[in-house]
Structures are given as structure tokens and as C-alpha cells.
Sequence to fold (803 residues):
Amino acid sequence: MFKYEMMMAEEKKVTIFFEGDLDIEVTEMMEQEIIPALLAFEKITIDLSHVSFVDSTGIGLLINLIDIIKNHDNAISVTISNVQAQVKAIFDIIQLPQIVGEKVFI
Amino acid sequence: MAQSIVSKGKNVIDAVNIGLGILGAEKDDVSIEIIQQESKNFFRSKPAVVKLTKNENEKETSPPLEEVIAEELTSRILEQSIEPEKNITKEKEQPNFLASMQTEGKVWVEGGQLVSKPSPMEYPTITVGKGINLYRNGERIEGSVVVTKDVKFEIHTEDEIIETIWNMEMDSQKLTVTLHVEPGKKISRYVKDTKPESHLFLEAHEEVEWQNTLTYEDVLLKLESLKVIHGFHHTEIMKAIETKEVGSFIIAKGKESTEGQNGYIELKSDVDLKEEGPKILENGNVDYRELKYIPTVSKGQVIAVIHPPTPGLPGVTVTNELLPAKQTYPLIVRTEKGVLLMENDTKIVAMKPGRPMIEQSSQLVKVSIMDKMIHHEDVDISTGNLRFNGDVDILGNVTSEMKVEATGMVTVTKNVDMATINAKDSIIIHRNIIGSSISSGKDNLFISELLLLVDELEQDVTKLIQSIDQLSKVPALKLSDYESKGLLPLIKLLLEKRFQNIPSIVKQFKEVITKGKGWLDKEWEELAVHLRDCFLSTMPSKWHTFEQLQALLSIMQQFQSNYRLVNNEKNFIELLYALNSSIYCSGDVTIFGQGCFNTKIQSGGNVKINGVLRGGVVYARLGAFIKEAGAVAGVSTRIIVPADQKIMIDLAREGTIIQIGKFSHAFDQDIHHIEATLDENGRISFSSDFEERYLHV
Fold:
């Protein structure tokens, strides 16, 4: 099961915690809830410390998320933090940092 | 009985007096008989010996005892006179061996024992040699020893037994078992008797007796342990256990497998073009009527026979296991364009008339019949470009920037003027080419382009599959979307960045296919569709599984191997004269007429120019043979061949440059009869052995 939690440190700044498997099941939630919610902010951090499993669709969703936000307003800062080692391995093979920008990963 | 006596003395008188004394008589009473006169020489002196006989009228009562004594004396005296006196004699007189030899101060072996006679002045010595143990008073002595008196020497010899050494070897293929035997021996040692020596070298004599202790049972047991049950050579085993010399014996031998034969093709009709060239007539024109013979077959004619492979025969190892023969392979035959494989795949039959084409690459052969198109007029703007899947005969000129492309041979009876000819097979131009581009042996341009793209794609897709494999091994990756979408999402991710090349290659591929429509086999179009479905689609397709991705890769590899099939070196280009043109041929290029001006020639075979080469570059992979070469002011003439080939020029004019391998030479004056090669040092050298026949093309 997938859950998310948003924590505002300041106004316009948010950290969203993903928890569970980031996979095809998350598609609807991502499109209908998460993305709309995040568009309100200027600085977004996606925390993946509680994500142990992903599938290719899920990674696609992540890329899609960043794309939509950037398209909406390029000034919005998006970063991804605390990626687990195994998940990072997958990201590296598909060269995700080069896809979304290396600065995205902190 | 008259009394008589024999007496001895220093001289006769002495002897008589002694005799008279014994007889007790006077001189007048006896008669004297001289038996031996005294004599004296250096070595001995002989006494005088007389016999005195008492006269008979005297007393007869001489006691018989006296007589006996006298008799004894007589014989003793006689004896003594014969024997030498010991203190005086200095040389041997007796033939007796030991008695005549001097043994003082010497040592020797007698009857197996050491005997010695050390003298006060001379002590003999003994040196102990091999195989002997010498004991002096019970203590073992080595080296040399002096023999003194009152010492007891003993000799002991030792016998030796050396064991038989043997081993058995089986080769890795289990076809031969070899038995090596080194028979043992018994060495008996003893001491021979010797002559007395001052310095005795004591050595044992050896008697060697061969003893081969290897038994038949030993051999059988060992064979059993090696599991050898076949191919025994009994006589060799017997030889081995009886041998008296070191030897190796092959005691078991299996049977080698025999090689079979791969399937092969047997040509039934003349498929190769013959080598006769056109003749140059006296007026300088070329007679092409006897051009290279171009073979044709008629409908129903058997082009070739396919022979199936003959399997080899297996052999047998000594362990009675089957030794399989090397695998033999059948010939894979691909037929197309009017050729049928008949009679259980053994006969290749032409279904239409035409020129047979046979291309073979190891165990794969492709047979087709070239269609022929005869174009009766010039190829120009009114006719448009010509593209044909087969041979093309143009009975006119090719002009006006037209293109002629054929998968077979192209023949032009007149000139090629500002045009392009591209044939997969050979090209014959009866007259001249001016400002044109002639190419023979390149795959039709579409296929060349497509193959380049396939090469790139094949490499990328191989790596793509590797990455997918890599990813599947990371535990964190779920395949939860595999059921609904297959590999599509994963491939998309990988094509996003890592393999971003792939989609663009596939797009290019599609473009070439569209351009080459009608010119390419259907299979190319099918491949384009597959590639699009796999890499350009947003919908999951049948290609989006692990297995299917591999299959797609195999299809690409199949294309690569099929289209590399062409045996290009037999291609040739022949024309009369070239000006301002470019000529490419995978085989030989021959220019019959005036020559070649300001033209570039690139040949995978040799280049022969029967006229003048002026201006331009000639590259000939198998050597260049040129009648006359020279430079035109401002335009250089360069002839290039690889390092192992030669350049022959009948007349090289100033300004001509030749290049062999990496080394060039520019002619600064006109030189006749050039034959240039690289010598052992890698320098251009000119031979004086010039054979004009090379130029008689």
C-alpha cells in the first residue's frame, strides 16, 4: 500500500514523504491527488526514505510528476531526497539523474 | 764283486783322494775313471767327478753296507751336480710360473684371496675400486692402503639386484595404452685372480644378468584398473614381459573416428565468367565480340546438385566407448528469383532463362537467376533513371545525369556521359565515360545504408537487453506492471536517456525503407515494422517481453549475415577511356583504350591501364599495371598500392608519384620499365626484370 504525507516547513515550502511501493497502483493517486496538491508550492522536496520497491511505471510517474511541475512553472524547485540504496541502483542504470537533472537529487 | 765308488772333488786329484779315502785304498789299488772334469764359469763351478774301481785281487770283504752308503752318496752327488746353487743364481731357470716370478714386495689375488709378500725394502699397496669391500683386520678400508706384514686382509664382494620398473599410460583420447618397461638386472660381483703387483688396483668384475620380473598378471591387473577392455595387442604384452631392454610397447589400441564430409554444391552449368579478354585489333579498336563469356541457363535446366553431408564414422576407445566423429553440416540453400530446389532438396533447377548467380559463404549458399532488361535506346531525361533487379543491357548511351542501378551486371554499348552507373555485379562499357561515376560491387545503396543502421541498432539493442537483465536482478525493482504492460514501461525509461539513440535510428531506418520501396525485398519492410512496434510505440506490443526482444535481436543478426554474402572480388569493370570520372570496383578495373585522365579509380582487385594515366589517383589493392603514367601541369598523378603489392609502369613521366604502403616516390625524370615493390627494409626498390606481358591486357 502506498501512502503519502506532506509537511510544510514554511509557507510555500513542502516536503512530501512517500511511503510504500511506488508502482503502477499509484497512478491514479498521483494524477488526481498528489500532483494537484504540489503545484501550490514553490519549493518541493520528495522524500523517498520509506520507499523500498518501485516498478518501471512508478518511476515513470515520478518523472511525469517532475515534468508537469516544471512545465507549470519552471521556477518551482523540485528535489528528491533520501533515496534508498537499492532504489538508487535502479535510478542509476536508467540514468534518471540525467533525465530529470542531477541537481534534483540531494 | 769289485768295489767301486764315485767321488767328487774340486778337481780330479781331489776327487780321487776323496774316493781313495772312502775306499781305504791306495792309488795303485784302483782303476780311475773320470766321469766329469771340473769346470768353472761365471755362474757356477762344476766339481770333478771320478769313479774308482778297486782291483779284483784285493779283499772282497767290502761290507755290503758300505756299498749301499756309497751308492746313496753317489746318487746324491749326482743330483747335487745338476741343481743350481741358490745364492748365486740371479735369473729364473724354471718354467714354473709362480716359482720363476719375483714375489717379494708384491700383493696379488689368488683363489679369491689376497696374498701378499711385503719385503723389508718394499711394501705393496692396494687401492680399493668399485664393488669391493676390503677389510683389514676386520675393519673396512677405502681408498688406498699399504700392505704390511702381520696384517689380515679380507675381500668381500656384494651382489646387487635391480628391480624391474614399469608403468602404463593411456592417452587422453583413450585410444592407446603404452607400457614402458625397464627390466631389472642381477649384478654378480667377484674378484678375479691377479698377477703380483706392487700397486694393486682391486676391482670387482661384474656379471650382469637381465631379470624382467614383470608378469602377465601385473599387466592384466593394471589394464583392469584403467578399465581397458578392447583392442589388446597380445604379442606386444608378451614382448614387454620378456624384454631384456628398456622399451615402450603399445599394448592396446582403439580405433580413431573417421572424418565425414560437409554437404556441398556441385555446379552443373558454367556459372563463372571465363577469363578471356577482348582483343585489341590492329587499328586500335577493341573487338568485343569475344567478350567474357556470360553464362545463361534455360528454363528447366539443372544449375547445380546439392550433396548431403556424409557423417564420419565413430571410433572406439580402448575402454570400449564410442568416440564420436566430428559433426558434419549440410549446406543451407536459399533460392530465389526463378530458382527451385527440387528432388528432396538435391537439385537446383532454373525456372526461367537467364544468368545464374551463385553466392556462397561457408555452409550457406544463395542461388538466383538474374533477370535481364534490354534497353534499346539511350538512357536520358526522356527515359528517366533505370532501376532493375537483374542485369541491364543498354544499347545506347547513358547521359544527362541519369542513374542506372542494377542488382546484376550493366553493359553499355556506347558512352556514359555525366551519369551514374551502380551495379552490384560487373560493368562493361564499350566506349568512354566522361564526367561520370561508375560503381561495381557495392550493395545497392539502400541495402548498404540499411545495413549500417542495422549494425548500429544491433549493438544498442544488445546493450539494452543487458541493462534490462541487470535491472531485473535488483531486488528493489518490482515487475508489477509486467502483466499489463510487459517491458514497455521499462524500455521507455531506458530509451529516455540511456538508449536515446535507438528511437532515432529506427526512424532513419523507416525513411530509407520508404525511399527504397520497390527496390528492396519485402523482408526489409517487415523488419521496419517490427522495429517501430518495439521502439517507437506507446502501446505494448508482442515485442515487449524478454524472449521477444531477444528474438528481434536475432532477426537483425540474421539480416547482417545474409547480406554479407556477396563474393565481390570477381566483379570487374571494363571500359575504353575515362575522363573526369570516378570508378569504384570491388574487383579488377581494366582500361583498354587511350587511358585515364583526371580520374579517380578505386579497385579491390588490380588496375590495368593500356594507355596513358594522367592526372588523378589510382588505388589498386592487388597491384597496378600501367603503360604510361605522367603528370599534367598542376594536376598530380598518384598510384597507390598496399605494402605487399607492386606497381609496374612502362613509362613513368616526371611528376608521377607512386606509393607502396606508406612509402612514396616521386619521379623527377622520365623512366622506362618501372617495376616497384617494397624490399625487406620497407623501401621502394626498382627491379630491372620487367615483363612486358603484364601490360598486354
In short: The mean pLDDT of chain A is 92. Helices of chain A lie at 27-38, 56-72, 85-93, 96-100. The beta strands of chain A are 3-10, 13-19, 43-50, 54-55, 77-81.
